[in-house]
Each structure stands twice: as structure tokens, then as C-alpha cells.
Fold each of these.
Amino acid sequence: MGTTEVFNSFKDEEGKFKQELSGDIKGLMGLYEASQLNIEGEDMLHEAGGYSYRLLKSYVTCLGYPQDRAVVEHTLKYPHHKSLPKFMAKDFIIRNLQRANEWMKELQELAMIDFEMVQSQHQQEILRISE
């Protein structure tokens, strides 16, 4: 099954995206993320991206929980397939894990150590290259 067939399953008889999709924020975020894999000539992915972006952008203003707003805004600003997850990790940890339970604090420390080790490794590689 090709890309077109997969995305056509989300459309109604008139060729528009099904109305029930508009209420599924997680689904829309997944659709938006998938659309980021768009290459030239794949009009269906381009259309899916525009559709999901518009709906998600409108939901940002009316989501009740600040955490939900932040997740949607982050997805729109930094789609996974167009960002570098290792470099986004520190921001994610700081924004989302500081209010967590004790075991989450340990996880945060572990993630920060991992981030610092990778950062150090990259700095060493840059030094070697510049020599």
C-alpha cells in the first residue's frame, strides 16, 4: 500500500479529510509528524501537513492544560523528523521533568549525564577536526 492509499483512507467521499479526525489531537500530531517526511511531488503528504497544522494551531489557544499546549506547540515548532532529538533532550528534560516524582528526578539526572557525555564527545570531535 502506497502513501496515497494510506492517506486516502483518512478522506471522505468528497476527497476531504474526515471530520472525526479534527477532534483527535494526538492523531493530528501524528499526521503532522508523518507529513514532515514529504518529498516533492507527494501532494497528499503536503495536504495532510497543511490540514493538521491548521487544526493544531487553532487548538493551541483553547487547550485547557498548559502542558498540553506546550506539547502541541513543540510539535509544530520542532517536528521530530526535522530536529535533532539528542540536542532537544535537555530542553525537554528542563521543561517537563522538573516537577516530577522522586524516581523521575533520578531519571532526569541520568538523562542529564547522558546529554553531558554526548556533548563532551561532540566537543572532543570538534577539537580533533580543528587540529
Amino acid sequence: MRGYFAIGVEGMSKEGNFGNLVRTAHAFGASFFFTIAAEKRFSRPGTDTSRSSDHIPYYPWDTPQDMLLPKDCRLVGVELTDDAVSLPSFRHPTKAAYLLGPERGNLTRVMQDQCEFIIKIPTRFCLNVATAGAIIMYDRVQSMGGFTERPVRVGGPTQERVHLHGKPRFRSGTPDALKG
């Protein structure tokens, strides 16, 4: 899969959700995990059984102004609002940081204004933050991972997708060194 992604939460308060989400981020191949204005600094909770802190960095930013994302990384807010793009209709950026709201509330207006995109999971009501994060990461991997198309019939594909490389293309013809 090309690019990278990170996932984080604004205003996180529950250690169990932190551990579950950071473990899931590690499993899906996140490049880093972050919190903004968390109620406390999290260490390795019991729910993080993969010991993700040994594998991916964790950035605990105190305020939205402290957040420092890599160059060209696009901030994608996840919030259940009327004007948010529904997840199945969203094309994920190659370089993205997904930001979820806290367990007991929404992304602040300051954070929503910093997001380039706001997306929503098409549910009737808000989900647990760790569950919502898992759905976002699954959708990213599923849509960008180079998997075979889903078959028309029930079941899986009959063969794996194989990438075929074509002959090299040169703008001004084949170089003399390659003619033969």
C-alpha cells in the first residue's frame, strides 16, 4: 500500500479505548498515533497486548496548536455531522492523519476548522471511539490496499491479483544502450 496514515483522538479520557485503538492502529500499519488535549498521558494499558509503543510512535499533544504533522499530511476529521462526507464515498488521501472526537463529545470547532476533510461513518448514532477508528482504518486498507475486486458471486476471488509490469517507456525513444 502506498503512502502512510496516522490516527488520533482529541480529548481522549479512557485508558481502555486508548489501548484498543493504538493496538488496532499497529495491526493496520499506522505510522504513528496521537492524542490532542487528552485528559492524561497514556502509557501502555493492558488492552494494548501487541505492545504497540515498541513499534509505532505516540505523540501526546497538549493543544491543537502543538500538533505538528509531516509535510503534505492531510488532516481528516471523523465526526457525525450533516455536512460530513460519508465514508463509503470518500477517497482517502495518500498521506493522512485521521482525527476522532472524544468518547463523550464531538471534535471541537477549532479542530474541525483545521481538518481538510470531515468524514462520517454512516450509522444512526455515534460509535465507541476505538470501534470507529477500526472502521476508518479498515476502510482505508480495503480501498487502498490493492486487493482484487469483490466477485459478483458470493464468496472470495478464484485467484489472487497479480501486478503485471509493462515495458519501460521513454519520452524520447529507446536509449542506444538498450537497443540490441
Amino acid sequence: MPSVLPDGDPAPLDGSLPAEAMASAAGRALGLYVHVPFCSMRCGYCDFNTYTASELGHGASRESYPDAMSAELALAARVMGEAGLDPRPLSTVFFGGGTPTLLPAEALASTLRTAVGHFGLVPGAEVTTEANPDSVTPESLATLAEAGFTRVSFGMQSAVPHVLKVLDRTHTPERVPQAVAWAREAGLNVSLDLIYGTPGESLEDWRTSLEAVIEMEPDHVSAYALIVEQGTKLAAQMRRGEVPPVDDDDHADKYVLTDKLLGAAGYSWYEVSNFSRGTEHRAHHNVAYWLNQDWWGVGPGAHSHLGDVRWWNVKHPAAYQQRLDAGLSPAHAREVPDAEARHLEDVMLRVRLSDGLPLSILAPEERERVAGLVADGLVEPLPALKAGEDGERRLVLTLRGRLLADGVVRTLLGF
């Protein structure tokens, strides 16, 4: 089942934001995340806030959901205006889930038009939807492209049938290149998402998946190590001994192979788990997350970040829709992280980027620990530290450092 919401302070029923926390929003880009919480079936590894038709219960449906999204977009525009935030057009829009493309393409297109009507859209903005390969058609992709979507991210996960079966994926390997071709014909950029480390997946299986991806020539590739979350079907199977446990060494071998094969095919890493052909094809919406820009999250369980305030919506689609039907904010709770928490986040997120962690972010005692990381081969030698466009010196992970990125963060912060 989906993971639980975090604790926090009560969120106002009208959605209002504390004025004193809004000053830091000036100059930040504004993104929009739209959560579509529907899936045709629950994958065994998934603990996202998603629901099959049988799990929705009363008070929520796919048919009524577009109206709920539109209602929250109107609330967002009102709340931001009342908080005194200057109007900012959207720099990125991302429809995630779940499977957004289980909704009719016109419903997604209409939601995008509503968002643009409230906020505007930066020229050339990235507008993405996630999709399963078997949840699209040539016609649906063409409708999305005509509405202003620029990019589709397909949940491929693997090109090997027995791996897809363990993951409970509904598509066949043959469907992926077909969906990619349709997206190209519609004029959309393409990202392919992969998962490595599935129980029973050999290194050669993983090579097969990578080679299949390279043959399709996507603009962007995400490759994530399988994390088995408590409460999932896969976690229960492991407890019962039905599938073998996750192996960290196996993950490392597969990541090294990923870097080697994708690098040789012209893809550069720009975040530990993400690779693109040129900076223009990076997932700019996700980059905004990693750089702590602002975004509003629409949908049940969606998280938002404006200025110094973070909040998250009620979890179940029925509760979400009931709040909005009553003219109330769907926000469940919120927090204003203190300086220490924001510093930890900055280090944890920015160290994962190939653009590097600016040394100025680190406290003096943290900078003193960099030499030890260089000696251990976890970050690039000091003379080679990357300079950003502003000329600032930055810490950049080596390949070994990417494998041990969490350890690098702990060392820098003295944990």
C-alpha cells in the first residue's frame, strides 16, 4: 500500500501561506507537478500514492478527477496572489503518478490549458507526462503534443520478460519501441525509465535492457536501483523467501555497466541516476527539485514547496475531492524547515549533480573534510574541481563517489 504521509503542523483550511516565509520565493522558477493517482494494477515494488479502480472506493473516480485538478489550480492561483507573490509563468510542468495516461488525453490537455490560463508558461517550457508503454496510442500522443506537451517519460523498467513479470509490469518488451516511435511521430521528446536489481535479473539481463534502450535512441534515460519498501508485495515475497534479497554489490556492478554503455552511446550523467544527450535534454523539472526551486503539487498526496514553506495534500483521492468540493484547501500538513534542515537538503541533493556542489554552501569544518574524500577517490581531485558558470568552485563526484553518494554526504556533514 502507499506510504504514509509525514507529520507536520496543521495546514490552514483556506490554504493561506505565512507571509514571512514567502520572501525567499523571489527570483525562483515556478514549476507545477500534477499527480494522477490511477493505475490499472499495482506493481509489486510500488509504494507510491496510487490506486486501482477497486481501491478507490466511493467519492472519487477517474471521470471526476479533472474537475478536482482544475479546482486546486484555481485555489493555487488565489493563494499565491493573496500571499503577495508576483505572478510567475510556469517554467516546467510534470504530470506524474500513477499512470497519467489512463486519463483521456483531452483531460490532460484541458488540465494543462487550465494551468497555463492561471499562471502562463515560459516560452520553450518543458511539459512532461509519465506513461506506461501500453497506455498510449498514436492518437493520444498527438493530442498531447498539440496541447503543448513536449516530452513523454515511459516506464520501461526492463526489456527482459521474466524481469517485467517479477515487477508486475503489464507491457511486453515489444511494446516499448512501438510507443517510442509513436511519440517521435507526434514530435515529443522521449525519456525511458529503467529499474535495475530486480530479483532474478542477471548482469546479462541488465545489459540486454541497456542495449535495447540505446537502440531506441531516447533523449534521456533514468536508471534507478530497486528499493524494496516495507508494505509492498515484493517485500512480503522476500520475507517469505520466494525471491532473493537485494544485493548491493549487484547494484554496483549494474550501475558501472550503465555508466559505461550509456557513456559510450553519447549519454552523460547529470544526476547520479539520470543521463541525457546534451544539457537541453535533461529533465529540467527534476533539476528544479534538486536545486530547491519552487513548485506547486496538485493532487492527493502531492507535495509543494513555495518560499520556505513545504506542505502536502491529503492522501486519498476521495478525501482530496471532498475538500475541494467544499471549497477548502486539500493540504493535510505543512512545515517551515529551519536553516539546518535546509542546509542538509542542499548538500544531499546538489552533491548528486554533475554540475557539482558549490563549496561556498559548506561550512568551514565541512570544507576541511573534502581533502579526505579526494584521497578516498570519491570526489574529483581538487585541481579539477568544476567551476560553475559563475566561476564558483564545485565538488564533483567520481564514478566511485556516485556509488557511495550517501556516504559522501554523511562525511561532509560529519554524521
Amino acid sequence: MTEQKNGTAKAKKKASMSVLLGAAFLMATSSIGPGFLTQTTVFTEQLAASFAFVILISLILDVFVQLNIWRIITVSGLRGQEIANKVLPGLGVFLAALIVLGGLAFNIGNVAGAGLGLNAMIGIDPITGAIISAVFAIFIFVVKEAGKAMDKFAQIAGFVMMILMVYVAFTTSPPVGEAIKNTFMPEKISIFAIVTLVGGTVGGYITFAGGHRLLDAGIKGVESIPEVTKSSVTGIAVTGVMRVALFLAAFGVVSQGLAIDPSNPPASVFRLAAGEVGYRMFGVIMWAAAITSVVGAAYTSVSFIRSFSPVIEKYHNWIIILFIIVSTVTFVFVGQPVNILLVVGALNALILPIALGTLLIAANKKDIMGNYKHPLWLTITGGLVVVIMGYLGVMTLIEQLPQLFK
């Protein structure tokens, strides 16, 4: 009997570790999309070794955001929109609308990225590649254990991307010493680059991807804090490894004086680093980055409306599939609506301060958190991120709104 109990306990622990790792990789791979690849390459070309400092600061801010949000969600046992509605009635609906709108718009870009990835990998037409990729993503949510399938896929895709990225970083032989020096003593600082990286890594739906996955797997309560903390930091660490590896690969190319093709910067880096084989490897990374972002965006966006209706809760997997289909059909027949994407991008920048600010207020409400006391250092650091990202998000929105009416 004792052996049976021990066996059950071990199985539960193994399942819990799998979910925690899956949540970490879901958040990480959701943030590592087509935009991630382009941003990192372009900023490396502009800032060279100084981009190492930008990566360091953005990762520190990312950790503050995720430690706060994952902890508050799992301790309260409520999803982001439910917490927001308890803080202020209707706020959760507003937040959900922003998340779904942003997630749908950017999923069009993710689907397009998946098509381009297959084009670079095996040479098929990007639209055909996008459709094949969408069918693959849909299959994940058709299988009986969709959550487990999503966890496993995120982990495998994440590991493949990391291995390939680290390999390419080695082939370009970047001046690592210069990069390390500039990590702490940069020759130039770009606030815009820091804000872009933070928004791209923990902005919009990405902020909630891991926390909502843990809730769906039944991981919640004060007793889960140590595991949740490890999971959230693991997610940021995976993103950090990918960012550093891609930066070093691009820095190696830039330091050799080679010209990066502005029409497709990340593909250019891989081709310059490892020739035609490198370009095919870029296709694998682009596809993996895009398809995991398609899955993460669809899953997390729909998780924001699940609590609004028993019907949505019951059929949420089918609504996720519909979300992917709508994104794909829009790309195939309309393309990427650039102006709308620009404005929604600015709105997405506002989601982080609104969401984090709301959850920090909730963290000090007894009717939401019970007897739990949120650490003061997390409240202060989280508050600083809210102020900084809120101000810069508003400035970006004001700048981008006129684009919609051109």
C-alpha cells in the first residue's frame, strides 16, 4: 500500500513538473515569434555590442513582471480578467477585449511567419505553408489531451530553436569579450530598444500565457509559490538564452563588416553565418518560433473569455481552433493589415501597465488574495514597470494613431 502511495506521489510530481516546464516554455515560445527574430537582429545592427546592455535591462524588467503576475494569478486561483473584474466591474471585459483584439491581429503575423519559415525551410509557397502550419496548430487542440500536447510541443520547439541558435552563434565567432564589457558599461543606450524588447517579451497576451496554463492544470494556492516562481523564471531564462544567442550570431556578422539584408534581417544573418544550410536552419527556427506563437496567442486569448459564458468554457478548444482559422483566412485573403497592426501594436503596449497595475492593486485586496501578503519589493518593482511602460505606451499610441487614417 505504501509503495502504491509513493508511486502515485511520484507520478503526480512528475506531472506537476511537466506542467510547470510546459507553462515556462509556452510563455517563452509565445514571446519568441517572427517579431522577436527581426527586432533582435535590427537592434544588434544599430547598437552592436551595446545591445547586450539592452538585453540585460529588459530581462530584469521581464522577471519583475512575470514574478508578480504569475504569483498573483496562481495564489488567487483566478484568471487575469476575473481578477480585473473584482478590482473594478467591467475592467476585466475591457482587458479581455484588448487581449483578444491584439492576439488576433498579431496572430495574422504569426501565421504569415510560419508560412515564410516553411518557404525558407523547404521552398514551398508562403501561403500554402501558412495553411499547412495552421492545420498543424489546429491538430494540437483536436487531440484528447490538448493541454499536455501543447506543453510537450512548446518544450520540443523551444529546445530545437535554442540548439540551432546557439550553433549559429558559434559559427559567426562574435567578439564575446566586447559584448560582456558592454553588458555592464554600454557605449550607447537605447530606451526605445528596451521598451520594444519588454513589450515583445511580456506584452499583450504573453504576460498571461504561463499563469493561465498553470491554473488550467490545477496548480494554484499559496503552497504553489516556490514552483510557480521557478517556472516563471525558467520561461524568462529560455527567452534570454534565445535572445543572447541570436544577438551573438548577428553581432558576429556585424563585427565582420558584412551587410545585413534589410528586407529580411534574421534570414540574412543565418545565410551569412552558415551559407545555404544556415538559411534552411533559419527556416526551421522561423517556423518553430511562428507556430508556437500561433498556439500561444490562440490559447491565451481564448482563456480571457472562457469565464464569461459556460458555453465558451465547454467548447473553448473549438473556439481556439476558430481563432486560428480566422487568423489564417485573414492572412490568405487579405494579407497583413499594416495600419491596423501598427495601432493594435500600440494598444498592446498599453496592456502590460494596465494588466500589471490592476493585479498589483488586487494583490493587496483580502477578498481576492485571502490572508496572503504580497512582498513589498515585488510591489515596488512592479509599480516602476507600470509607470515606465504606461508613459511610453501612451506616447507610442499617440504617434501611431494617425497611421490608421492615412
